[in-house]
Amino acid sequence: MSNTFSLILLVLLGAGFAMAFIRLVIARTAGDRAVALDGATLISVDLMVLMAFLMGRSMLLDVVLVYALLSFLGVLAIARYLEGGL
Amino acid sequence: MNPDFLLGIASVAGVSMIIAAVRAIFVRDLLSAIILVGFVSLTASVLFFLMDAPDVAITEASIGAGISTVIFLWGRSKVREE
Fold first, then answer.
1. What total of structural domains would you count in chain A?
2. With 0-12 CB in 10 A as exposed, 13-18 as middle and 19+ as buried, what is A26?
3. Of A70, A78, B20, B25, which residue has the fewest beta carbons closer than 10 angstroms?
4. A85: distance to nearest CA of chain B, Å?
5. pTM of the shown model
6. How remote is the C-alpha of B15 from its chain's centroid?
7. How many distinct structural domains can be found in chain B?
8. Which residues of A touch B42 (CB under 8 A)?
């Protein structure tokens, strides 16, 4: 992969992460924060996959797999709590 | 991989981690504080990932994102409203 292409990808993912983070900090309700946390988690999963590819180490993909599964569990628990079920 | 990329990602993750932690202290309701603590554990996992510690990053992801968010929400629903 060329160097400029990976730089463009990193800048785009960083911009998405920054927008999700700003929404997480200045949100009005807790539902906004839950959606912003979900977006930041998905973008950081992409970022970690890109870093594992650039480092050339496939062992780091296990971390991303575990994190993607467990962050879905966390967002599911928050949504269940907001509906009054938990 | 270029070390400037690693430095940029690490600085973005660290600064957002500090801001989210301070916001979690001063936020009004407890559910928003729980969500912000989940974000802090997310950035901690990214920083452990960057420091070439995949086992610590797996542990931080499973404890921080999976267990502690669910346990905090469960305790929040048990505590009566003040």
1. 1
2. exposed
3. B25
4. 9
5. 0.89
6. 12
7. 1
8. 37, 40-41, 44, 71
